[in-house]
Amino acid sequence: MTLAELARAAEGIWAQWAEAARNLQSLEELEALRVQILGRKGRLTQLFSALRELPPSEKAEAGRILNTLKERIEAALAEKKEALAQRERLERLARERYDLSLPGKWRPLGKLHPLTQVRLEIEEIFLRLGFDVATGPEIETEYYNFEALNIGPDHPARDEWDSFYLGEGVLLRTHTSPVQIRVMKERKPPVRIICPGRCFRRDNPDATHSPVFHQVELLWVEKGLTFAHLKWVIGEFVRAFFGPNYEMRFSADFFPFTEPSAQVHIRKKGTEKWLEIMGAGMVHPRVLEEVGYDPEEVTGFAFGLGIERMAMLRYGIEDIRLFWQNDLRFLSQF
Ligand code: YSA
Q1: Does residue 150 line the site of ligand 1, with CB under 6 A?
Q2: Where are the alpha helices (DSSP H) in the chain?
């Protein structure tokens, strides 16, 4: 190849670029053109290889021609690339334009079940008072559910807790009190816990009873605890949960695992009706002995309240069955 032929070929390449560049529609087409000219086997690259065939005296001039062409094409390519990219950007923006006047899509937000909300609130109150949360199994043995709580095999109190038996000596727990026993057997005093959980009784469903319901048990065992401490804790709880407009009263009751035992009632100040909210009492010495504590050394108190009952009082709900019906009109109010 001569210098003149090389210069003509270079012009031909520029003409090819100029012609093709006019009709380019996309960045892909631009890239294909770049490869055709500047790629490893591109026309200009091949022309650079042809430099070798020229006599040394012409090489410098030929090199200048090719480098100038290369720079021009590269600059034009960059300019074209920017223009095409800008065009594609504008087209995309036009395609993706949002119509802010369209109505939004309503996505309903999930919520915690009202019973869960009430349980968490009760837990929060007692956590602030320094209690830990403990849990125990829903499938229990007669020993933990009854015997260790001083409810012997023929004790009439067993009738009050009509139970679902799963097998010999194994049942669905009828209250959260067995968790007291499990925790006391594991820990040394002082013990300060609450145990929220599900309970099961063969109670016919009605406005205030459900065969499955929830309780929160509280237990505090330490040196020197008296009934006055129990009254103080319950008073703090009633104030925190129901507010200052409620008053409480205690009346005598009987539980085999507490002595003395009491029922706690509350009522709105200025109204007539007292409502029972929990059973409570000083832990029976036999229960303390059963778990290996010395009743001469430590005393304790406990109570058990129904979470459904708390929620019904708080929200003025008249029928416990509403909690289980999964009716969104009911649930979405909480
Ligand atoms: C008493 C003294 C203690 O030192 C510790 C705990 C207790 C409570 C005892 N273990 C107990 O279960 N007592 S209870 O039979 O009266 O139930 C306590 C609460 O559970 C009731 O006040 C009620 O709110 C709730 N409950 C009982 N059976 C229910 C029910 N809630 C809904 N449906 C049922 N079938």
Answers
A1: no
A2: 3-22, 27-38, 43-50, 56-95, 114-128, 142-145, 157-160, 177-186, 227-242, 285-290, 307-315, 328-331
Percent of the residues in the chain that have a pLDDT greater than 70, as a whole number:
99
Name which residue sits closest to atom 14 of ligand 1, judged by CA: 279
Mark whether 90 and 120 lie in a shared domain.
Answer: no
Q: What is the mean pLDDT of residues 42-61?
A: 89
CA 203 to ligand 1 center in whole angstroms: 12
Q: Is 263 in the pocket of ligand 1 (CB under 6 A)?
A: no
Q: Evaluate: CB of 300 within 6 angstroms of ligand 1.
A: no
Angle 116-118-120 from CA coordinates, rounded to 5°: 70
Q: Would you state the structure tokens that stand for residue 116, as one six-digit string?
A: 């869960």
pLDDT at 21: 87
The pTM of this model reads: 0.72
Domain extent, residue 60, equals 3-96
Return the pLDDT at 104.
87
**Per-residue pLDDT for 99 more than 90?**
no
Same domain flag for 273 and 303: yes
Q: What is the pLDDT of residue 160?
A: 67
User: Which of 150, 278, 286 for a ligand 1 pocket mutation test, highest count of atoms within 8 Å of Cβ?
Assistant: 278
Q: Is 177's C-beta closer than 6 angstroms to any atom of ligand 1?
A: yes
